[in-house]
Backbone:
């Protein structure tokens, strides 16, 4: 049996961040990783840390996700059931929808220190919460829906999870850690609409999405569009932050053919996608269009 003793956790960045390697370093001790070739879950976690220096937490507690430097993450996380089959299925799902998208060099250089598995993640806003599929902070990404339902997910839900998980990595972790930056020209395309809550009034969902894309947005603000009548939705312009998030969510949850069709139909959407593609190609030498779903 091989063991690795990891020294964590409160997270403290050693000096200033390095934009070329935005990992969080640790200062004080918590985890013991023991290899067991006969235990799929234990061996997977041990091997992943050996290869990439990233710890996969199957049973995180509040000390793993609540605090982020001087700030508190506004989330509550419920850990998965600790049955081996649930965790094995969860690891296989995360491997397919997240880990295998990136090559070894990317995982070593750009992944956060911990990947935390969750049954559910509650994001608290103004005294209430929304359930989210993923959440990233300065040293971790938490991934929800690790439960018995994974085995029976329909394709649309599975693709939506893929979009949310990877969007979280790119816009909540890598972007905020300054591993890359959004070009100002991206925001210029739709700048006249940001904060204009009079533009989208009452639409059907389909009409609202078309209107949004004609203005250079992927869709309306999903946090503000819930109504009892799907034929009468009060729709709002996304914030700049949400605008970027929606572009990445669509990218990772769609095939290249679907992306090409969207860009062909909506010139402003194409303009913004090409700006993102060019910026990340220059900054990280990565073509983000390669992250689309396989056809």
Residues:
């Amino acid at each position: 049996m091989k063991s690795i003793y990891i020294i964590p956790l409160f997270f403290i960045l050693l000096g200033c961040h390095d934009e070329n390697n935005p990992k969080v370093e640790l200062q004080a001790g918590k985890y013991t990783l023991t290899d067991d070739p006969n235990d799929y879950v234990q061996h997977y976690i041990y091997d992943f840390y050996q290869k990439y220096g990233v710890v996969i937490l199957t049973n995180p507690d509040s000390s793993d996700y609540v605090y982020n430097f001087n700030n508190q993450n506004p989330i509550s996380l419920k850990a998965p059931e600790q049955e081996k089959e649930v965790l094995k299925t969860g690891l296989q799902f995360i491997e397919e929808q997240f880990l295998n998208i990136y090559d070894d060099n990317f995982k070593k250089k750009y992944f956060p220190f911990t990947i935390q598995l969750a049954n559910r993640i509650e994001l608290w806003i103004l005294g209430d919460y929304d359930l989210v599929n993923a959440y990233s902070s300065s040293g971790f990404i938490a991934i929800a829906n690790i439960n018995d339902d994974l085995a029976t997910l329909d394709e649309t839900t599975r693709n939506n999870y893929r979009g949310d998980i990877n969007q979280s990595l790119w816009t909540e972790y890598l972007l905020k850690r300054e591993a890359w930056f959004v070009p100002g020209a991206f925001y210029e395309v739709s700048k006249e609409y940001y904060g204009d809550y009079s533009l989208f009034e009452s639409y059907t969902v389909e009409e609202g999405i078309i209107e949004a894309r004609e203005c250079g947005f992927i869709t309306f603000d999903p946090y503000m569009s819930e109504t009892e009548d799907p034929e009468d939705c009060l729709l709002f312009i996304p914030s700049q932050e949400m605008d970027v998030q929606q572009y990445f969510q669509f990218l990772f949850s769609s095939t290249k053919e679907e992306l090409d069709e969207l860009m062909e139909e909506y010139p402003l959407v194409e303009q913004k996608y090409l700006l993102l593609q060019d910026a990340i190609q220059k900054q990280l030498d990565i073509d983000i269009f390669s992250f689309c779903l396989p056809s």
User: Anything to note?
Assistant: Residues 19 and 257 are 33 Å apart (CA to CA). The longest strand covers residues 120-125. Residues 155-174 form the longest helix (20 residues).
